[in-house]
Amino acid sequence: MTVFDPRSLEVVPVSPEAVGFAFLILGVALLLGKFVRVKVGWVQSLFLPSSIIGGAILLILGPQVLGRFDGPWGESGLFTEGMVETWGVLPGLLISVIFATMFLGQDLPSPKRAAKLVGPQLSLGVAFGSGQYVIGLLLAALILVPIFAAAPMTGALIEIGFEGGHGTAAGMRPVMEELGFGEGADLAVGLATVGIVGGIIIGIGLINWGVRTGKTEVLKGDVKMSVAEQKGLFRSDEYYSAGTMTSRPSSVEPFSLHMAIVAVAILIGWCILEGLRWIEQQTYASVMLDDTTPLEIFAYVPLFPMALLGGVIFQLAAKKFGFDRYIDAQVMLRIQGLALDFLIVSAIATLSLQAVGDNLAAFAILAVAGIVFNVGIFMWLAPRIIGRYWFERGIGDFGQSMGVTATGLILMRVVDPEAETPAFEAFGYKQLVFEPFFGGGLVTALAVPIIFLTGVWPLFFVMLGVFVIAVLTGLFYFRPREMKDREEHTQQIEQQKQAEA
Predict the structure, then answer these.
(1) DSSP at 86
(2) What is the tens place of the pLDDT at every residue in 337-369?
(3) Are 398 and 379 in contact, with CB atoms under 8 Å apart?
């Protein structure tokens, strides 16, 4: 058996036993990460996912740290070269599973209800996503490229690492390697780690500030999590279903059925991508930008955004032909979570510390700029375009813009534990429109190739235009409607108080 190594662009021979053992070690690392989360207090206070802890353990025991010192562990640390190579290729495969499951089993909302909630939420989300490009590309053009000799594609890393998270960062590695920007994937994975940790820490701090200043409408008093929640465990009296059986195991195991559906969705996405690449080769790919660079875009687009589209197509077909009831959204979430956990562990385990160290100045500038921008947008824009429950609804987008969707959901659960506000509903509706483009969608997938082909400024001005439109639409179209709803609600409360008096 052979495994393609995206770092060296070579096919490395790996035995089937090494591949199997590599997965076993990933499982052990996840279990160790969970043990650390349960036993170590400061890890609990940071709400670090077990996958990040497990990935850090493998990173320390592997060639990047332990393997650099003389000893019986050799150049690969405690692991074989085949295992490390297997971990290196896994993120690029698992990211397609994650994106294919995003809309499978999901019910589409009524147009009227969705339109009412999605408008301001989408304006805020697009402002986060496009603004990260604006900040990153501006820094690249004015500071990172001329002063630190960084690649122009560095300008896309804030959105890839923060909005996209570990999955997108790792999934973009083959494309970055092909474009000669191998260190970019390592920087993006590092930024994703900073984003998740910073998102939780800063998010909890913002929630406490919101409670003290009366910005929140549900929480009153200090924000505290139970010991079980900090450890990431359920209490003995808590019972939650992991999914619904949609087929009898005597015919096919329900989990197997859902995995098969995911496989078909990914294949649909693969066919779409190959079709777009064929059309590209038959049309404008013959145009040469210079002596060696043809005008190709889809040649560099990874599979995972098309896998998302494949999932949407499969779900629409299932709805039309009446077999959508056999697709359970909760089971799809379990598959997505499984893939994400293993992706994060393997991505961090193979993170190149040397690449981060060699580009430490650019890394630090991007990380600080991304955090400051996200906090600024949440504090300034969210209350101006969202009426009632602006804090509860905005904190979810802040969390997503710092790491992954799960970060936003965690923060929304803290600030709205009983789902008394429309925060979760509005956030979900926004995802239907937002995810196909930002945070790992088509815009994210196309950004790096476009910068490679055209430089920084064309994409900068496009994203600047998108950012301005999102902000102005929120301020001058959605804000009046939201403020009217807020005033009507206030009047209803006053009338109710007068009636009771």
Answers:
(1) H
(2) 888 889 888 888 887 787 778 888 999 999 999
(3) no
Structure tokens at 154: 């560095």
> Exposure pattern of 7-17 as b/e (b: 16+ CB <10 Å)?
beeeebebeee
Do 295 and 288 form a contact (C-beta atoms < 8 A)?
yes
Mean of the pLDDT values across residues 123-132?
94
At 12, which helix (H) or strand (E)?
A: strand 10-13
What is the rounded distance in angstroms from the CA atom of residue 92 to the CA atom of residue 154?
20
The three state secondary structure string of 387-420 is CCCHHHHHHHHHHHHHCCHHHHHHHHHHHCCCCC
Q: Which two tokens stand for residue 472?
A: 């102005």
pLDDT at 11 (0 to 100): 46
Among residues 190, 176, 2, 193, the alpha carbon closest in space to that of 86 is found at: 2
The percent of the chain in helix, strand and coil, each rounded to the nearest 5, is 75, 0, 25
Instruction: Give the three-state DSSP class for 108.
Output: coil
**Residue 298 and residue 453 in contact, taking contact as beta carbons nearer than 8 Å:** no
Beta carbons of 207 and 218 less than 8 angstroms apart: no
CA distance 148 to 135: 17
- For 488, the enclosing helix (H) or strand (E) is helix 479-500
Amino acid in position 21: F
> Collapsing DSSP states into helix, strand and coil, what is residue 3?
strand
Of residues 91, 125, 87, 88, the one with CA closest to residue 9: 88
72-127 residue pLDDT tens: 555 666 788 888 888 888 887 887 888 788 788 877 655 665 566 678 888 999 99
3-state secondary structure 364-387: HHHHHHHHHHHHHHHHHCHHHHCC
CA distances from 288 to 60, 82, 285, 292 (A): 45, 39, 8, 7
Determine phi and psi for 10, rounding to 5 degrees: -125, 160
Is residue 335 a contact partner of residue 101, using CB atoms and an 8 Å limit? Answer: yes
- Rounded to two decimals, the pTM is 0.74
Question: Which residues have CB under 8 Å from 441's CB, separation 6+?
Answer: 305, 308, 434, 435
CB of 459 within 8 A of CB of 137? Answer: yes
b/e per residue, 432-461, with b = 16+ CB within 10 A? Answer: bebbbbbbbbebbbbbbbbbbbebbeebbe
Q: Which residues pair with 268 in a beta bridge?
A: none
